[in-house]
Amino acid sequence: MSMTLKINGREQRVMLDVRTTLLDALREHIGLTGSKKGCDHGQCGACTVLINNKRVLSCLTLAAVTEGQEVTTIEGLAKADGTLHPMQQAFIDHDAFQCGYCTPGQIMSAIACVNEGHAESDAQIREFMSGNLCRCAAYPNIVDAVKEAKPKMKET
Question: Residue 44 CB: number of other CB atoms within 10 A?
Answer without folding.
Answer: 22
